[in-house]
Structures are given as C-alpha cells and as structure tokens.
Amino acid sequence: MEFLLHRVVLNPSSYKELIQAFADFEFSEESYYCEGKIKQQSSGYCKYGEVKIIVENKRDWGGAKKISWEVSDEEIPIEYLDVIATTIKAIVSDSKNSFKFRIVGGSYHVVDSHKLSFEMATFRAISNLVGLDTTKV
User: Fold this and answer.
1) Which of 132, 67, 52, 129 is nearest to 98 (CA)?
2) How far, in Å, CA of 134 to CA of 36, rounded?
3) Partner of 73 at 20 to 30 A CA spacing, among 51, 89, 102, 121?
4) pTM, whole model, 2 decimals?
5) Low-confidence stretches of the chain (pLDDT beneath 50)
6) C-alpha closest to that of 65 among 92, 38, 28
7) CA–CA separation, 75 and 91 (whole Å)
8) How far apart are CA 95 and CA 24, in angstroms?
9) How remote is the C-alpha of 121 from its chain's centroid?
10) What is the pLDDT of residue 44?
C-alpha cells in the first residue's frame, strides 16, 4: 500500500488557534465523539466531505497518538486517509496527552470530494470537539 503524505493547506493562523484550543481543552472523559462536514459550492467548484471521529483519552500511553481507520471505502475511500491523518497530526502533535483517534464514519461525493474537503471536515470535527468557532475557516 502506498500513501501520499498530505501537506495541510488551510490558513496557518487557523491551525495555530486550533492547536492552542486543543492543548487547552480539558479532556476529563474517557472518550469523545465529534464530526465535521463541509458542503460548499462556489463559482462552479464544489466541496464535500464528512468525517466522524471518536477521540479516546489514553492517559497511560505516555503521550502516544494513534489513528484507527474503521470506515469502509463506501463511506470514505482510503485515498483520503493520509489527509485526515495529516490534519489530525498537525493539530495534536504538540499535545502532551495520549489519544487514539478512531475514524468511524463519514461520507464523500464521487465528484465534489477532494483532499481539501477532507482537511476542512477533519479540522471542523476537532474544532467542534474543543468548541472553536470555524465559521471563518
């Protein structure tokens, strides 16, 4: 299996805000469910992507972060795994806490889904988790 490593393309200041919001969030529960969706049309270019994530707080892992891909190709094709994983990594890499990110659902559109769509959807999912306003993203 080959992976093309995605380079995040959203506004760096947006990532900076979310990185800080994630680091400041009080993870008191064992697990959290979050989802993000992008459905946008502008100037003939459409974006669509949806990601559903369960974030498990793993206090005893010594800062480790893991990602578990638990979706079928009918929900999200494997070609978007690198985008979702890279986006998560960009947001949480500075956190000292341990987490398991379980990608458990989502949806795509054969024409309107692109890598940027899934970067935005993943960004929004984590933003929704920590309560960061994503209307400007």
Assistant:
1) 67
2) 10
3) 89
4) 0.87
5) none
6) 92
7) 23
8) 9
9) 6
10) 64
